[in-house]
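Final report, Chapter 2: Outcomes

The project's central promise was a pipeline that accepts a single protein chain and returns its three-dimensional structure in a standardized token representation, suitable for archiving and comparison. That pipeline is now operational. To close this chapter, we reproduce one record exactly as it appears in the project archive, with the input sequence first and the structure output second.
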Amino acid sequence: MPQNRLIIISLFLVLFLPLSAKKRPTVPDSLRSLTIDVHGVSITMQRVEGGSFVMGATSDQYDRDTYTDKPAHLVFLSPYYIATTEVTNHLWRTVMNEREMLDLSGYPEHPVSFVSWHQAQEFIRRLDSITGMPFRLPTEAEWEFAARGGEQTKHFRFAGSNEADTAGWLFPVAGQWTHPVARKQPNEIGLYDMTGNVAEWCQDLYGPYELSTRPDPCGADTGSFRVVRGGSYDNCIANSHLSVRCWYEPETSVGYIGFRVAMTLPNEPTKQVVPDEQELTRKVRLKGRRLHFTLVPGDEPYYISEEVSAALWKKITGFNPPEKEHGIAIGMSPQERVRFAELCSRIADKPLSVATLAEVDSALAKGVIAPPKQPKRQRSVRATQRSRKTREKLSPWAELIGVKIKQHDDPILQDFKGDANEKLPLRLVLR
């Protein structure tokens, strides 16, 4: 028996230890979360692994149109650290002089507010001198990536939840004042109050988004307003999803704006190699129109296009697509899709092909493209059949006056018509 046990233990070590070694993190556990002491007050900094994500108006955020967070675009970020909570009154008073702060001694765990962007910069300068650490404000891209949960995102509308009151303090539940930090549910990577309580200053100058985004973007090159993100106790739920952008003059000092700190270690142990700017997106010109392609990273990277519009289909083929929904061409047969890709390749003189389902799924999983919009609600079988009978009765009378009544397809028969992929939007791939 002892020999048998020895053999079993040996087999276990041989078979499973190599597998467990592969799963070891590339960063030591001691660097995944840092606790920094500031004269007896602790700051917890959570590591956010670098990665790619689609920033802005993705379909998981909301349905209504806006303009400040469009277009949704791919962003690459290197690893960084961000504070798990907003800067509190207690921490502010510890770093700054008493006379430079309103008397909020009764609310030490509430986030500091009535702080301008310039005052936040002065706080960071003094914090750096005390700790010797390179603190700063997070960039807007870093803020949104962290709020979405980084690479662990579950695509919630708010930070860590689809329920606003679970994620943070918002109007009207919050009332008209701040609340102690870290009382609500954290998001996927352990950050608190990324939704609500106080809105947060970012480092960036405000400017409109561009489809082609620089790696580790840091905002507009020029401007006079600074970005504020996250919503506050004064915001309603409809205006507090994670992609919402606000901007204020840097001198602004109001009760619903505060901040949290971020930093990048100078000797980053796993500094991510981010593609050059020109490698993130491609634009293919097709008969006066541009089709935008976005990089899908991986062992065999490729570029995937936006959904082919009905207008582009007609421009290339000379014919309207069989169907369209939200301006997107659908209903084409597999042969028609391949022929379209061949025509585009010939016009652009580039190797274009139809995106396979596996390529689309990979782009979706990596956050490069947003999920398609939900299709319109289909009519029930009974309602369609009842409508068909009514239309059949009216058709002879309608023909007498020259009116043709459209007959809807029976939903029972729709499953037996054509290829299911014909209803999917068409995307092209460039390698």
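Archive annotation: Residues 280-376+416-430 form one domain.
This record, like all others produced under the grant, will remain available to the consortium after the project formally closes.
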